Give the backbone structure.
Amino acid sequence: MRVLITGSGGQVGLELISFLLGRDHDVIASDVAPKPDACTHDVAWEHLDVTQPDEIREVIERVRPGAIYHLAAILSARGEQIPHVTYEINQTGTRNMLEACRELDVQKFIFTSTIAAFGPGLPDPVPNEVSMRPTTMYGITKVAGELLGEYYRQKWGLDFRGVRFPGLINAGVPGGGTSDYALHMYTSGMKDGRYESFCHADTRIPLMYMPDAIRALVEVAEAPREKLRRSIYNIAAFSPTAGQIAESVAQAIPGVDLTFKSDPLRQAILDSWPRALDDSAAREEWGWRPQYDLDGMTADMVLQVRQMIADGRL
């Protein structure tokens, strides 16, 4: 299938490009930014600003994708610094993409939601269907995107589906997410020998290693529609405290100095998120299973980050 990816220059986008190419899809990447050096694959790279409907229509009419993976978004921590821009990109951009799919008969739209779509005071673990009262602009726009996509499915038959990502960890430069304290433990821990997390040691949120996240996104996209009883699915892997992550990293990097000093703004965001997710719907309806636990992720991350440092990429 020919697929178009928005927001291709981010960590999820770059990993998704590689994964889809490995499954013999015809991939068209797009972003407002030029193709980054980190994208070593020979793929078509389109300039695409999701806030510009005419630009979206021109690209879709020309490349004619069978499916769109919509990743373009501003994340939580950065989003609180520029909430109006975050709304325009995350919310108006999603609406523009959905409308272009309706007008130009794109059959499938894959959406990435997030644990930031939830709010405080929910059951532990948080079920798939629950009252959602997010406390950040990022979370608000993701809830609205879920609901808008379901509206397009019900009214116009667009095959809208996706996952709610936990905090994602991958070997790379942190991208402005509130869960980046976990990534910094590996990157700064190996490069500098120390890192001070911006949260309490007992902070606990759901996390996932990026290879599992990419696989989940493609698996839900490729699942037979008749097996899916909903549009958006919780996916889960592990839910360690920040202190437990530090212990895992310290076992793999002897002598690393990992400490904690809570930043009030980012701590408040973290405290509003679930501590664990119930992903039983994804497991039952399309066979979701994570492959990495915390220590498995640490073992692979240390190898990846060490190579990045050796190559001068970090």
User: Anything to note?
Assistant: The mean pLDDT is 96.
